[in-house]
Amino acid sequence: MLDPRIDRKPVPRGWAPRGSAALARRAGGAARRSAPGRVLRALQIQLDHFRIWNKITFHRGRVLATASDAWKAHDTPAFLRDPSLFYRGRTRVPEVTERPVGRLAGAEIARFTFPTLYPMPFPETNVAVGRYYRSIRNADAPVVLISHGWAHRTIKTIEHLYVRPFLRAGFSVAFVAHPLHFERTPRGSYSGEFVVSADVVMTTEAFRQGVIDLIGAADWLRSRGHRRVGVLGYSLGGYLAGIMASVRGDWDFVVLGGTGDSPVSPILDTDLGKNVREDLDACGMLDRGKLTRAWKIISPGAFHPRAPKERILLVAGRYDRIMLPQSVRRLWNAWDRPALHWLRRSHYTLLATNGGLLSHAIPFMRERSG
Question: Is the model's pLDDT at 4 over the cut of 80?
Fold first, then answer.
């Protein structure tokens, strides 16, 4: 170390070490670039908060409750060891009725229905309803089975955000409305209102019906000669897709976007769950340990996937305020760390803007189904 008492030659005014000007310019440029980055991050987070506020304010949903200890019927070790015992329908291949309803972006559209493979106490939801977009360009195109998010109101949104890009990428697409959504919505309620609530038993049964009907639709597609079928699930639909990967291993690809290990996290750990927390508290279910046990059978992180790890992709947003990053990491670890892409996105910009989920999903799906 130099002795500070040693005399040094004076440094000429304006002198700087070689290359320092370039370093300074780069540092200044990085600082200027970081400011817009911070603004964009804040705007994305604010969008999540606005959407959450909108949902909990204008979609309060009716007050529901769990009846006594009815949830314990689902807290069965055998189901957790082998989820296929729980997610088992009446038959393997449903009796499907279909009719053509038009064309879209190089695909013929057929609307299909079938009696649910697992009934619930709502007649409307006991008829599964879906659409099949068959590629005109390639009759043998791989099929993407979409497992959609919570409370969609119109299929046009799904067609715009997901179906059209998949068709352009060379896939055929199938879509099944989740229980209690779209045409399966019980009279007097809104699409998705009853799916996640303080009636933890009904929530579990809705997930159960959704998984069973989606798997049934996949078996129907295979019975028609489609050799390559994979599933993409996002947000709420990612939980169902994750369970499907744990029940069956014959998927060509499994892509989960904006999905964590358990629905317990968004309900207890984010503002989205504010209303449900109030109702859980009123019926004695606002206890993390109890709720975790009640919803373990609908939590992908409770299982190990049967689908090969190399066919699984997780895509998550670093700024997500609904599916929190720690919940995604728990799923990733529970699943033995499959491919995971982190994007600088919030929940809604991850799922609904260019450069988000599909920018990583489509190349992965092409490679796995090629």
Answer: no
